[in-house]
Amino acid sequence: MSLNPRLYPLLATIGIFLVGYLISYLQFPAMLSTRVVGNLLTDNAYLGIVAVGMTIVILSGGIDLSVGSVIAFSGVFIAVMLRETSLHPLAVFALLLIITTAFGAAMGWLIHFLAMPAFIVTLAGMFLARGVAYMMTIDSVAISHPFYSMLTSAYWLMPGKGRLTLIGVLMLISVLIGAIIAHRTRFGASVFAIGGGEQTARLMGVNVGRTTVLIYAFSGLMAGLSGIVFSIYTGSGYPLATVGTELTAIAAVVIGGTILTGGAGYVIGTLFGVLTMGLIQTYIVFDGTLSSWWTKIVIGLLLLVFILLQKGLLRLTAFGEAGS
Amino acid sequence: MGQTLKRIAPQLVTLTLVVALVTVIFPNFLAVSFDGTRFVGPAVDVLKRSAPVALLGVGMTLVIATRGIDLSVGTIMAISGAVAAWAITSGMGLPASVALAIGAGLMAGLWNGCLVAIVGIQPIVATLILMTSGRGIAQLITEGRILTFSDANLAFIGSGSLLGVPFPTVLWIATAVIVALLMRRTALGMLIEATGINRAASALAGVNATVLLIAVYMASGFCASLAGIVATADIRGADANNAGLWLELDAILAVVIGGNSLLGGRFSIAGTMIGALIIQTINTGIMLSGFPSEYNLVIKAVLVLVILVLQSPNLAADWLFVKSLVKARRAKVRSETP
Amino acid sequence: MLLSIRSLSKEFPGTKALQGVDFDLAAGEVHALLGENGAGKSTLIKCLTGAYRRDAGEILLDGQAIDPASTAEAQALGIGTVYQEVNLLPNLTVAQNLTFGREPRRFGMVNRRAQSARAREMLAQYGIDIDVERDLGAYSVAIRQIVAIARAVEFSGKVLILDEPTASLDAAEVKMLFSIVRKLREQGLGIIFVSHFLDQVFELTDRITVLRNGRKIVTERTRDINRLRLISYMLGRELEEAARDQRTATKSIGQKPMLRFEGLGCKGVIEPFDLEVGKGEVIGLAGLLGSGRTETAELIFGVRGASSGAAQDDKGRIAHANPREAIAAGFGFTPEDRKVDGIVAELSVRENIILALQARRGWAAPLSRAEQERLADHYIGLLDIRTSSAEKPVGELSGGNQQKVVLARWLAMNPRFLILDEPTRGIDVGAHAEILRLIQEITKEGMAVLLISSELDELVAACDRVIVVRDRRHVAELDGDRITSEAIVHAIAQPGAASQFEAA
């Protein structure tokens, strides 16, 4: 049986990651340690989680620009709540996730019922979330709660002294759950259907309005979760944090092989997209002489390559159809 | 002229309301004095500070009229600012530095335009590429530092005044007027609108849509480079990380507040300029009234939402209905009065 | 009767799409629904499938009155539809498409294995054995059609509507599809078959209903009707006597032709043809929908790239590889779908009229406002365009007036060769006659016109010469007194033998 062509972009992503890792390893043998792997997961945990939500959104042909701000809001919300109230962090987490999920749902509702581009509605959401974060505090608020110290120091020491942290594991679980939702549920099938063509999806019986609301609610939920992880990672809440994370997440999704126009892609690919971007950063740190701005340029180039690849692939399948 | 006024009347009313509100809170808002060399006062400050968003808005209006969007303008600002600062510190002199910076903006626009018009990538994606990687390029030029300079000529562009008016103000008004005249005194404006509304029909009528699209993105790059030069000149340094950060969003907002549809077609540069003024008045107003400046994000968000609701195609039909009711009633009243 | 439609009516602003149409479908019957574009076929289908709500009339399914408000509801009632395109989702797997909405689940998750097994089972009934875990888009159109049929039958199971299902299939695929349709007929489904391939209609169907201009013309058993009669039902010829009056010989007999196209063709689209165009001549292009009429026009105007051939005038070769070159060569083209390819809806009447002229002058040489207004007023008067003002957005005008605006756009260019693709489609009778009168007017000045039309009387009335297109070939040319409805119908109806099947 020959390879299913829908796997090509995913394989390209994994291939690029592996080749990149190999090159890094040849240059810096220390790259192949559990320490580096553990850090790769930990450092990119918040990005990976939010990118899972973004993948679902992009699969449906939408976009969510609000997530970076929602992460910042989450951090601030947690920090301020813990400082001002005596609520247990878990209660605060639950409250936060309800808020961000409702926020996402509200945006989805506006997108569907106002028939406006997702891009502009979530842009307003981006302003709103960051604005509210600012209104709560304009300073960085440190989180000092015994429960938090516990979370921060929760890790499993892998052989080779690498740390598999709680938040790293949380990201992997999120990817897994995201993959199941996208590829193994009716909701996931509806997401792909809307991404493939809203009109046809409707003809096939998809409740487009409900699905759209759920998609953005899920993205909001993941952004909230990502905010929790980010607050554990940094131990503070800061309204100016994670500026531009939405774009990094979109880039990770695209580099992960998901087509930006929607309808095709894999959640697992997004994980590799995130790891590839993390790898570039790690490489630059290891190298020491390269400057951090090369990260942006390389990511931009990768983005271009993948978009052109998608374009070419689409054209190829179009030719295939014409020829058949 | 009368038509333009009618078109931008809602924006003018909004601006008046915002200004009135700010004046109520801060009575000195409209006070302008002459300190011997230049006019000073909060209102003058608004006119000066709205320069970057207004400049970006000019180009963005054209791009959005073609049913596109340019997310990279903030980044192009950073690149052009970096080029200008680098050129002036390398001793190239003002004309060469400015020309190089503008050239960088035009190149960036050409890149975007080719991706959109020739490769056929949707605009939001095509310009996203430059948006993410462009800051890296700007940092490459400044080598990651804030590249400062002391050239008074370049600094004049950002903080000098012409006949007492801040130079950035002169620059953005002049750019807006020139571009608007170029659009309306030549056929460009109509051809851009036709392409934005129906590219297929326009192409069949012989409009060269490809060249037009590229030109529009280049115009956006050009405007962004002017904004970048102003921003750099103002602080006498190029900050690759923060120059123009999120200004693309303000520019889009200015276009939308200006009454231009995100779905392309009819556009009004005058409307966008008033949109930019509204945004800056709100910013300044919040600052003056002692709120943390951060509040303006929430206000902007609410503003966008309100405008979105008003612009929504789903509600358009209802609006038409209400309008026709009003018209009918007026006609009735008129016919009954004599 | 499985399905009965009684005096169904549907009106859209400006057009009566359906007027009191009756239609019956028996179980175990394949019933052809025929008519040219705009005849009301798709409106009828959309009323059946719940995509449109009807204005009047009733629909009975198994004797029960039904009123589907959505396609999902129609599906649940038992009416399934397979369209030529936009059916299923090419980005989902075959199995997902087949079971969408009824996926077998376990613990709330889709059971992939059961899903694939179910899909294979469904396809096995049609004798198809493919990898159901591949994207639907990876398969040929024929397979996709069959998958769509399998899904429609599974989900609905009483009435199956096939809307141009064979348009892009080759002969072997059509055969496969037909055997499936026959099998479904034996199983007692009622099948509505819409197609413009008459050979297929004769081969497959039991009864034929013809619609024209929103009315039912006839329902007959297929074996009782012949091609000739069928085509004249479809194209209509009531106005024949009134037609063919004043077409005087302004044409250029014996003169050298103004334009010559030689061997112009495009692989798989239209076979190479020669065309000579004389000064002031009106050339008709007749043929059924899908025969290659529009493609001929697109090739001439450079909308489509030609794979062979050249154009010449008395000064030598002419480039016409894209619309801009064609315009420079003095051609004009009013496309068939004026809403999509013709008007720029939000621009004013004035701007729409001067658009092509301005594009040719270039952006830097604008027409003055006064000149624009003069042109607009001139053509509004000349063509009698009904608009409250030249500044009204053209999208707010009626269909006929929009057509006149597009026509004015080209007249303002003063082209030497104007191609009109179905210029009278969907416009009311009065405007219809006016546009024909206009064609007479403009050709007096020497402009040549290529008139594509599916209305015979229009061609007979207006043309000096009629070229008949069939199966993507120019097959006949009639001129002078030989232009009659009968002659055109005969030329179109020449049995195409198996050639219809190769149309893909």
Automatic annotation (TrEMBL), chain A:
InterPro entries: ABC_transp_permease (IPR001851). Its main location: membrane. CDD domains: TM_PBP1_transp_AraH_like (cd06579). It is a multi-pass membrane protein. Keywords: Cell membrane, Membrane, Transmembrane, Transmembrane helix. The keyword ATP-binding does not apply. The keyword Cell membrane applies. It comes from the Bacteria. This is Sugar ABC transporter permease YjfF. The gene is yjfF.
From TrEMBL, chain C:
It holds the Pfam family ABC_tran. It comes from Aquamicrobium zhengzhouense. Keywords: ATP-binding, Nucleotide-binding, Repeat, Sugar transport, Transport. Residues 3-238, 253-496 form the ABC transporter domain. InterPro entries: AAA+_ATPase, ABC_carbohydrate_import_ATPase, ABC_transporter-like_ATP-bd, ABC_transporter-like_CS, P-loop_NTPase. CDD domains: ABC_Carb_Monos_I, ABC_Carb_Monos_II. This is Sugar ABC transporter ATP-binding protein. GO terms for molecular function: ATP binding. SUPFAM superfamilies: P-loop containing nucleoside triphosphate hydrolases. The keyword Nucleotide-binding applies. It comes from the Bacteria.
